[in-house]
Amino acid sequence: MLEIKNLHARIAEDGTEIINGLNLTVKAGEVAAIMGPNGSGKSTLSYVLAGRDDYEVTEGDIFYNGESILDMDPAERASAGLFLAFQYPMEIPGVATMQFLKVALNEQRKARGEEELTTPDFIKKVREAAGTLGVEMEMLKRPLNVGFSGGEKKRAEILQMKLLEPKLCVLDETDSGLDIDALKIVADGVNALRSPDRAVIVITHYQRLLEYIVPDTVHVLSKGRIVKTGDKSLALELEAKGYADIIAEAA
Amino acid sequence: MAATMTKPAEAPLTATETALVAQFGDRSSHLPGNADAVMARDKAVQAIKAHRLPTRKVEAWHYTDLRRLLNQFPDWRSDVAAGAADPLLEDAHRFVLVNGQMAERAQIEGCQIESVADALRADVGGVALEAPADADDAVGAINTAFVTDGVRLSIAEGAHIERPIEFQSIHDGGQAHTRNLITVGAGAKASFIDRHLGSDEAVLASNVTELTVREGAEIRWIIVQEQGAAASHLGKLTLTLEKDAKATLFIANYGGKLVRQEVHAAATGEGADLTFRAINLIGERTHCDVTLELDHLVADTTSTETVRNVVTGKAQGVFQGQIRVAQAAQKTDAQMACNTLLLSDEGGFATKPELEIFADDVVCAHGATVAEIDEDHLFYLMARGISAKTARGLLIEAFVDEIVEELDDDALIEALEIRIADWLEAHG
Ligand SMILES: Nc1ncnc2c1ncn2[C@@H]1O[C@H](COP(=O)(O)OP(=O)(O)OP(=O)(O)O)[C@@H](O)[C@H]1O
Ligand SMILES: [Mg+2]
Fold this sequence. Notes:
The complex is a heterodimer.
Chain A: E1 2-11, E2 17-26, E3 31-35, H1 42-50, E4 55-64, E5 67-68, H2 74-79, E6 82-85, H3 97-111, H4 119-133, H5 137-140, H6 150-164, E7 168-172, H7 180-193, E8 199-203, H8 207-212, E9 217-222, E10 225-230, H9 232-241, H10 243-250
Parallel strand pairs in A: 3-8, 3-9, 6-7, 7-8
Antiparallel strand pairs in A: 1-2, 1-4, 4-5, 9-10
Helix pairs in contact in A: 4-6, 6-7
Chain B: H1 15-27, H2 35-51, H3 66-69, E1 93-98, E2 101-104, E3 111-115, H4 116-121, H5 138-146, E4 151-155, E5 165-171, E6 174-184, E7 189-198, E8 203-213, E9 218-226, E10 231-241, E11 246-253, E12 258-267, E13 273-282, E14 287-296, E15 302-311, E16 316-325, E17 333-342, E18 348-357, E19 363-371, H6 375-382, H7 388-404, H8 410-427
Parallel strand pairs in B: 1-5, 4-6, 5-7, 6-8, 7-9, 8-10, 9-11, 10-12, 11-13, 12-14, 13-15, 14-16, 15-17, 16-18, 17-19
Antiparallel strand pairs in B: 1-2, 3-4
Helix pairs in contact in B: 2-5, 6-7, 7-8
Magnesium ion binds at residues 42-43, 87, 172-173 of chain A.
């Protein structure tokens, strides 16, 4: 479903290379975990996947369902089924959350040639999704993410994911800032989306999340490349030994 | 060696100034008014000739060089064809002036209503035109010289006028100079829409409004300036707030080519409160200037001023906000902010906030920002599948609608937001 080949990406502004020959393949139905030290390039990878133009791809390619997505803008990628749950969701004053959700849903439907949702259908859909995630409808009347607590922001990201029903989900440290109960709720939300035609990339520092969302593969990212790949036991090993040894071993 | 002193020759009158003086000669006998009015009009034209139209050298016009920018003085048109437009709010009482001529007059219970043309002619109980005080008052001078009509309306003490009152000034090419004189009696309540609209033909429109809000009265005054792309609009609103009077003044500029809207407000009674809001949506080569002069003259008066601007194309915007707090005006609270969203490199917005404070126990603050669309916000919206154009639109609307939504009236909010969205669709 996703194939990243020898990807090199740098910060557009100053040319610093962050992603440095990265290879990664994720199959449909797979849950892949990416772990790695702070500053190793995990979020940058997620942004490059989503098409943020702060970064420039200088070499290599990203194939999604067999086709390169490098020429697509973020909206086109999202409509094609890519979803990034942000590590730090942005606060956008003045844009009501409900309005945003409705526009996003309908723009994606439009881009795929589907009918727009009517307002009652839309509200029903949001209410259902919000219910399962323990998100209050009151919160959705507020401007997007403005004044939401850390945990509320993460839940709002998962709510968006549930509503948009993407094919490839990238969750960037969705577990950080969540209490134990919220972690379970969010994990249930992700697990509910698991299906043979979807793939999930979970970026995390902690084994705990991976107890709830059990990964098929675990990848270690260091200095902008995947240095080791294994199954779920690799996450346990990382937890036990820390990154230093494993990265040294791999080098 | 004898130095020869020669006075620098004043530049010759511009084409606009020449036309203004010449057309006054042709027009003056057709203009309404008694002998005093004739004299005042004549003095106004003499003042324009003497002071000339202001340039950047006149401080109040530093960012709007009227002599250069007012480069058209179209002929009057008598073949008035334009009909009235639907009011902004469905249930409004409507007054319609087409090219300065009264075309429709509402009757409202609790209000005394008269045409300004009639009032100018009356020798008893009429209204007087005042000659302009100084070179700053070009808008007043032009209006005094040429004003034809308008609405004189006075709301009885304690009357609550439920439906909004709309003054519709339609400019269908040529010139239109109107004046509205409004008094809101003690304890009365009313909501006004002062709307300026018209075709895309060359227009010079001026409007002077004198608005007095008496003790404990409460009003909302919305200026909707949505004229055609070739219109010059010169507006001057004088607002007096007496004891415990409350006014919300909202200016929406999203039309015209050259716009100067002055507001001269004074809080003359304790407890008076002014909420001043303006949105300026300007594109292409529009020049739009909102100039506010606010005097806090007595103690315990409050005001907030928020201006939001969206600039595209080669448009130039100006906001001058001068707040003067007199020595007696202790405990004044005034908060002013002017924020601009700049969508093009070629446009610009000049902000000149000025606080002149002669009292010591006051809270006054001002701030100004100019920003572009936040790329991070744009990315976030696009990452959810929202196209670049729609995402931009959402962010711009959010910026402007924030102050529209402070208006406590859903129908009005909706009417304004639709127009903002239309403007963005055409210019964003
Ligand atoms: N736009 C940017 N400007 C400057 N530096 C950047 C930018 N984006 C990323 N970096 C740098 O690139 C490196 C990788 O950052 P990234 O956020 O991808 O790390 P990460 O693996 O997600 O870390 P963490 O675990 O702390 O979230 C860091 O050194 C970071 O400071
Ligand atoms: Mg990160």
